[in-house]
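ENCODED BACKBONE
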Amino acid sequence: MVPLCASCHGNQGISASPVIPDLAGQKQGYLVGALNDYKAGRRQGSSAGMMVGVAKSLSDADITALSAYYAGLKGN
């Protein structure tokens, strides 16, 4: 799943685009909450359409693992 995330959020969780947020160094709880909100359709915004589709394909274990991975990376 990380390659799918990396296509927008960068290989190390640092996005090249100013409109796509960095994931590296984010708090794990924030990432879990955001992914769960996308999965449930509770999160709105310009990227919600794509993120809902991505999040719905994730299991709870996937969300936990991805969130831990990106939280462990050094952010900017």
